[in-house]
Amino acid sequence: MSMESHITLRSLPRENLKGKPLRTAALTIVVTLLSLALFAGSMLSMNLDNGMRSMERRLGADLMVVPQNSASQAEALLTSGSPGTFYFTRDVASAISKADGVAQSTEQVYISSLAASCCSSKLQIIGYDPATDFVIQPWLSSQFDGDVKDGQIVAGAGVNVSADGTIELYGRDWPVVAQLASTGTSLDNSVFVNRATVPQMVEASAQVSHRVMPAEYARKAVSAVLIKVADGYDPHMVARSITRLDSSYGKLGFVYPGGITASTKVSLGSLVGYTAIVVAVLWVMGVIVLLAVFFSSVNERKREFASLRIMGATRGMLRGVIVREALIVSLAGSVIGVALASLIVFPFSTLIGRQLQLPYLQAGPLVVIGMIALAVACSVAICVAASMLAMRRLARPEAYMTLREGQ
Amino acid sequence: MEHESDFRDHLLVVSDLTKRFRRRGKEFDAVSHVDLDLDEGDFVAIVGRSGNGKSTLITMIAGLTRPTCGTVRVQGRVVGEMTDMELSRLRNRTIGFVMQSQTLLSNLTVLDNVVLPAVLFAERHSQRPADQSDRIGRPDADGIVPDPLNEKAMQLLERLGVADLAGSYPRELSGGEMRRVSIARALMNDPRLLIADEPTGDLDQESTDIVMTLLRQLADAGTAILMVTHDPEALGYADYALRMDAGVLSRP
């Protein structure tokens, strides 16, 4: 047994929206676009900013010395480029570490893997020296409490580790002891091994395909010397002192991570700026369209509201009807907008980062929830405000005069 | 002091009511110093040529237009001194108003249009007419308990001969049908004073008879009715007629 229902003041806005499907659809679409632009634009800017800050934290060295013609590859490795293999010999590295102004130095070896079963693209293998390292270990220690032993791997966030906790590389399963948090840089697609594991990998590569580097270099190859400069020294000054060590060192590549950060910041700043301008323009246009739709319906609705006044509706009731209509439309529109933006922003975050060639790090769930709430709140507020502006013209006291207009 | 007691005794007291407009720089009185008393059960018609202030007078009585001077008292209270809430309650509960023009809400069905005045003030939801109390809660053949407001609206539509249009939208109705639905809506809250502006304007002979018979029955049951009309047929149902000429109300 159920009770037959009747119209109520609360259900009137819903009936009004149903009765004018075109107007309702137009308003919903505009609010959808507003919230989509705001949410997607904010997430994009925020994720780029996160990536930037993460990159700054990861680049713990003041200067990187790399082999001749390898500087751009090394820069790409730090931002969002593709993996590479380049090296010089350990004796060069030892000489560099003794240069004037070097406070601390450590060696790293970079090997670009073949396409591995774990990953959609090639992996960057980074061998580091635990004894001297000051870049990787502080980062590792936040995720992994212990030493990375020979043959063990620490995987970046973007690397798929199989269920048994291994990664297959060069036909061999390597145990993974920890997986790092996402950085938004190409380091996410890297694996980290200690320096002693590098020759094992070189040997493994020779078993399955071409050898990644000659056997005699496996133990003495160094791809980069990372340097922390002493107090009072400038990285450029230290680079000059290195070139003076030997006449052949003039051709070495020097990468200044601080410089990379600065240039990336400039690109990121302009991208965030453009995004903000596009979102602002869209919002201005959206608000104009919203106002136009509300004001164009004012004339049509004058009679409707005059009728309601005549049958006893207070101005507050009329306001309530208008606000509830705007709330229903704007809530629906903003939720659709956020959902559509989420379909683009979240599943394709890796692709977005790669296309932008900038570090791109997805914000955490709490921040995302906050942004969703903000996008919905802003869209609802602007829609309700536009409707209230139009309402001022509808709630004139002399309602009967409206009904007599045109008679 | 005699006047004070008059105000309290009559349902409607109009005193020295004037509405002044300006047309092409010249002021004129659309309604000029009108006095009128109405008691429960009175059925008064106002006749006169178009543009002589009849509609302006009744809209001032309903508080829809502010007078230039003079007062309107309904149940002893001055309409012009009421707050928006008080005036809205008065229009909703005490006064029923049938407009000359089409005022049905286009997004609502005929039934919802008629029910709407009964749901504007929340406390009215719980009020059910005494004569309906025995029917409430009794399910129909499908097990659905009829809603008392819908039932009351259907009764009114039936009395006005438009019950079969309950599920229709205003755009599907003729002018005469809309007029009858508007009358049903004005009667939904059992008003003590019904103000009707040309209630038979779009109606044929048969419908005019239905509407005027209903209004007469309402007056006989105690509702005060103030009707503006040009229809000689409708005049016959009123107790007496007043003439409005150049804003001045007089007994012919």
Automatic annotation (TrEMBL), chain A:
It is a multi-pass membrane protein. It is found in: Cell membrane. Pfam families: FtsX. The keyword Isomerase does not apply. The keyword Ion transport does not apply. One of its GO terms (cellular component) is plasma membrane. The chain crosses the membrane at residues 21-44, 271-295, 326-346, 366-391. It comes from the Bacteria. Residues 277-392 form the ABC3 transporter permease C-terminal domain. Keywords: Cell membrane, Membrane, Transmembrane, Transmembrane helix, Transport. This is ABC transporter permease.
UniProtKB/TrEMBL annotation, chain B:
InterPro entries: AAA+_ATPase, ABC_transporter-like_ATP-bd, ABC_transporter-like_CS, ABC_transpr_LolD-like, MacB-like_ATP-bd, P-loop_NTPase. Residues 12-252 form the ABC transporter domain. SMART domains: AAA. SUPFAM superfamilies: P-loop containing nucleoside triphosphate hydrolases. Keywords: ATP-binding, Nucleotide-binding, Transport. It comes from the Bacteria. The keyword Zinc-finger does not apply. Pfam families: ABC_tran (PF00005). One of its GO terms (cellular component) is plasma membrane. One of its GO terms (molecular function) is transmembrane transporter activity. This is ABC transporter ATP-binding protein.
